[in-house]
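Recall that a protein's primary structure is simply its ordered list of amino acids. Everything else, from secondary elements to tertiary packing, is in principle encoded there. The following example makes that idea concrete.
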Amino acid sequence: MDHQWTAHFIAGEWEHEGDERPPIPVENPATEQVIASVPAGGAAHVHRAVVAARGAFSSWSARTTEERAQVLDGLADLLEDRRELIARTVTEELGAPIKLARQLHATLPVHDVRETARALRSMEFETELGNSRVYAVPVGVVGAITPWNYPVHQVVSKIVPAIAAGCTVVLKPSEVAPLSALLLARIMQEAGLPDGVLNVVNGAGPEVGQAIVEHPGIDAVSFTGSEATGRAVAQQAALTLKRVTLELGGKSANVILDDADLATAVKVGVANCFLNSGQSCNALTRMLVPRELLSSAAEIATAAAARYAPGDPADERTRIGPLASARQRDSVIRAIETGLADGAKLIAGGPERPAGDALTSGYYVRPTIFTDVDPDSFLAQEEIFGPVLAIIGYGDEEEAVAIANNSRFGLGGAVWSADAERARTVARRIHTGQVDINGGAFNPAAPFGGVKNSGYGRELGPAGIEEFLHRQSLQF
């Protein structure tokens, strides 16, 4: 694959020079081979990017909402045209199975952009309130720091609403999977985005990420990542009183009520937990089942897990690939070993390397399911970020809600019931940002974000654009 764009992107120019640090290697997690490298940026690169973004802000923010929406329309069309290239890039750098990469990683961003353009056209940016005229005004320059698990969607869900609002952006993509973000920058340039509106600086968090958060020329920061790093971002941003949006971890509960279609609920729950090799912040990693149905649920889940044999992500038949890095694989294996030590009942998978002659290299783990999990245990409380499912029994609906809320996180969740109104009533009692009812599909027009230690602020749709606006009122 051609990686000629593996560079910083500042003021419309591709810069291949880093600072004094060596280039950052990018691995294919299925082969453990280095496939590219990106220059390691630092504070000087961030500063140049901020200067470029501030220079572009006046003209970009002065464009009409329709003009900005038309640029997004063009971007969506190009993303749709480039889906195969995007999918193959994500497969190569992340290890996502190619079929999943096409269906999710390369397609969801197209919907994200189209929904943002639609939201932009429908929003009111000027209103009258008594003797005041109130304007929605872009906040300025946005610093976006994105993770590796959805390396296109997570970038799009931050920078596209910011650009729609009239802001300009300095982006730091994850150094684990930066190639698709750089491909996205090239596509956005082709879509006619003016120079300086989007700038990309590669590098590690302690150098580039921290420089973005601390820079006085950046007005708002949007961060997705770990709980600990999110806390540090908020603390650092407070020193310059930046607006901050945080999308952090999750430990989402899949509440299966006693009248639900158990087979469907369990199978869909397993699929959700194992999606993207379990590397999703809103994965349904806690499955709550009535105690009298635990054995049946375990049997269904075990059979479902057997369909997720790890394999070569370039193979069209593969449903689950490797984890993104050796560090992530080792972390997940330690979590599985902790679950065993705590006495949880293992019914699928385990800490051993997956079998198969084709899996002699790569950061693979076995899709793993535990049942009879203590709601207060490590498996039920900590975000593992891998294909590990904890099945937890409950007595009645009240206990199910209590267990679902027994988490410091609150990002996603699900409720299953034959009675849709009952499911909605239970869902409203769960303290989390988003809940799927009976397998409801992800909606890129709806606000996405968390409560409690899952962060604050929202992405996608009108709410995502609102994160990058403030209100100016003129009194007459």
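The radius of gyration is 22 Å. The longest helix spans residues 43-62.
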